[in-house]
Amino acid sequence: MLSIASVAKTFFPGTVNERRALVDVDLEMVEGDFVTVIGSNGAGKSTLLNTVAGRIIQDEGIVSLDGKNVSRLREHQRASMVGRVFQDPMAGTAPNLTIEENLSLADRRGKPRGLARGVTKAKRERFAEALTQLELGLESRLKTKVGLLSGGQRQALSLLMATYSDPRVLLLDEHTAALDPQRAELVTRLTRTVVEEKGLTTLMVTHNMVQALEVGNRLIMMHEGRIILDVGPERKSQMTPEDLLAEFGKLKGAVVDDKTMLQ
Ligand SMILES: Nc1ncnc2c1ncn2[C@@H]1O[C@H](COP(=O)(O)OP(=O)(O)OP(=O)(O)O)[C@@H](O)[C@H]1O
Question: What region holds the ABC transporter domain (predicted)?
């Protein structure tokens, strides 16, 4: 479904600032796989997501979606296939537009330009129904500007928007990290629900090892641009955060802030 084959990316090659962000990375995901991604700072996690989204084009290797080589497609050309939520709650929504206008943008993603821009009654009803699932009461605030929402509300809306047009793959880049524990818990719960309901193939980067083990059916650990651990459902369900810390401990040069990671 999502195939990353022999992908490599080096920033500033041949200079003193050279950074080998991805080194010969292979990852095969089947439809409905939910993979959590952990790794120390600078391990290459965001770069991996960026190569799937098309924000960064790899130097070597192939990224395929549904058997189609998308390696040379730019980010906007993959937009209908890829949903993404970032760490920053401000990144996924437009603050000066209302909730329904934001959802309208999400609804139009990947559809031909020139489709009616207005929010029809039928659409409004669909938006309200989708918002009800968030259990935040946003369905009665369709005309509220998104800039007035709290970080947690915005992130829940970002998640809804990223998944609204049923992307082929969902990328979550530490999307709960900037929220307080209660809101993070809420957004994690919503994530599980929406991924399960829509059967989305998902890659989720997190620094939180408890979350990495609780969520998803597979876990990968990255270090210095490589996937150095790939754990399937059975082993993952038996692993503890301490086991993951022990794996980090085996790595040379991996700096782990275990307070953050065990929160
Ligand atoms: N746009 C860029 N330009 C130059 N170097 C970059 C760029 N993006 C990432 N890098 C470098 O590539 C390496 C991998 O970075 P990346 O952001 O993918 O790591 P990460 O695992 O997501 O780290 P973190 O957990 O700290 O966010 C790092 O050395 C980083 O400095």
Answer: 2-249
Q: What H or E segment, with its residue span, contains residue 120?
A: none
145 in contact with ligand 1, CB cutoff 6 A = no
Distances (CA, A) of 236 to 152, 218, 247: 28, 7, 13
Question: DSSP state, 98?
Answer: B
Instruction: Give nearest CA residue, ligand 1 atom 7.
Output: 11
> What tokens appear for 164 in the block?
């609204």
37 close to ligand 1 (CB < 6 Angstrom): no
The count of domains in the chain is: 1
Q: Are the CB atoms for 194 and 182 separated by under 8 Å?
A: no
The CA 258 to ligand 1 mean position distance, Å, reads 20
Q: What is the mean pLDDT of each run of 10 residues along the chain (263 residues)?
A: 97 95 97 96 95 96 96 92 92 92 88 67 92 92 95 94 94 94 92 95 96 96 95 95 89 60 53
In which domain, by residue range, is 45 found? Answer: 2-261
Could you tell me the CATH number of the domain that includes residue 204? Answer: 3.40.50.300
Instruction: Give the separation between CA 151 and CA 181, rounded to whole angstroms.
Output: 12
51 lines ligand 1 (CB under 6 A): no
Nearest CA to ligand 1 atom 29: 42
